[in-house]
Amino acid sequence: MAITDWPEGDRPREKLLQRGAGALSDAELLAIFLRVGVAGKSAVDLARDLLLHFDGRLTRLFAASIEDICAIKGFGPAKYAELQAVLEMASRALGQQMREPAALGSPNAVRDYLRLKLAGLPHEVFQIIYLDAQNRVQGDEVLFTGTLTQTSVYPREVVKKALARNAAAVILAHNHPSGVAEPSQADRLLTETIKQALALVDVRVLDHIVVAGQQTTSFAERGWL
Q: Mean pLDDT per 10-residue run, the chain (225 residues)?
């Protein structure tokens, strides 16, 4: 049955307009993005197939390659490009919000940004957010890229980058593709090493955030800094 034949209150677009985007399921939100289905399948059915292909995880869909997307019936380069454009707009909007003067008074802005950037990656990366003397975000970058289970991080390079950016403080972040946000003992030792190295050049470590899917763990909140 086509979506246009559904009761009006069940149609994703009308449901969003009446009740807000938060009332929709992942498949319904994707259906609005897709707009149309394929022969024998509505946009919602197609969205469900897409989610099923990526184990029901939006983060895996967002991190999928063009080859992965185009391998699914009903999808091609144009749809992949549209999805990437939407994600990039969301990333830029969160990045701008994170750079607002009051952003660090609301840590959710930083976490939302890091989740969008890191949650769906199939390999570990180590990212740094640079801040000035007033704790205003000046920029960020992925400094190291690793494998499924580990990333080699060199404190000397972290110090060099912080000095090059004239940073007064940093927020460290990395992801766990395993889906477990609990920091390892190695994560804690590395953080302490980086903290001590940066202290020698008067750069503070404000936090280290571990991202695993939609879960995050903050070293600062744990009292580890």
A: 59 87 87 78 83 83 86 84 86 74 64 85 92 88 81 91 96 92 94 96 96 91 92
| Count of residues in the chain | 225
- Rounded CA-CA distance 6/23 in Å is 17
Give me the phi and psi of 167, to 5 degrees please.
Answer: -80, 140
Say which residues have a Cβ less than 8 Å from residue 98's Cβ, sequence separation at least 6.
Answer: 109, 110, 113, 129, 137
Q: How far apart are CA 45 and CA 49, in angstroms?
A: 6
CB 162 within 8 A of CB 129: no
- pTM score of the predicted model: 0.69
Residues 50 and 75 sit within 8 Å (Cβ to Cβ): yes
Is 120 exposed, middle or buried, given 0-12, 13-18 or 19+ CB atoms closer than 10 A? buried
Q: What is the C-alpha separation between 215 and 144, in angstroms, rounded?
A: 21
